[in-house]
UniProtKB/TrEMBL annotation:
Residues 2-61 form the 4-oxalocrotonate tautomerase-like domain. This is 4-oxalocrotonate tautomerase. GO terms for molecular function: isomerase activity. The keyword Isomerase applies. Coiled coil: none annotated. Keywords: Isomerase. InterPro entries: 4-OT-like_dom (IPR004370), Tautomerase/MIF_sf (IPR014347). The lineage of its organism: Archaea, Methanobacteriati, Methanobacteriota, Methanomada group, Methanobacteria. It comes from Methanobrevibacter millerae. Transmembrane segments: none annotated.
Length: 62
C-alpha cells in the first residue's frame, strides 16, 4: 500500500491539512487503481527554526 510523506513548515491550518490529505489520497489512489482507504499520508510539520534554505533558517528570513 502506498505511503506518501509530505514535509514542510508548520504554517498550514488543520483544515488545509485535512483538504490536502484528502486530495493527495484521491490522486494517488486513482494512479494506483486502489481504494482511497489503501493510501497512507504522513504530514511532517517542522517549525521555521528547524528549516534551512539558502544557508539561513526560515525563521531568520524577512
Amino acid at each position: 500500500m502506498p505511503v506518501i510523506t509530505i514535509a514542510g513548515n508548520d504554517g498550514i491550518s488543520v483544515e488545509k491539512r485535512r483538504e490536502m490529505v484528502k486530495k493527495v489520497s484521491e490522486v494517488v489512489a486513482d494512479a494506483y487503481d486502489l481504494p482511497v482507504d489503501a493510501i497512507t499520508v504522513l504530514v511532517q510539520a517542522y517549525p521555521k527554526e528547524s528549516i534551512g534554505v539558502a544557508g539561513e533558517l526560515l525563521s531568520d528570513r524577512k
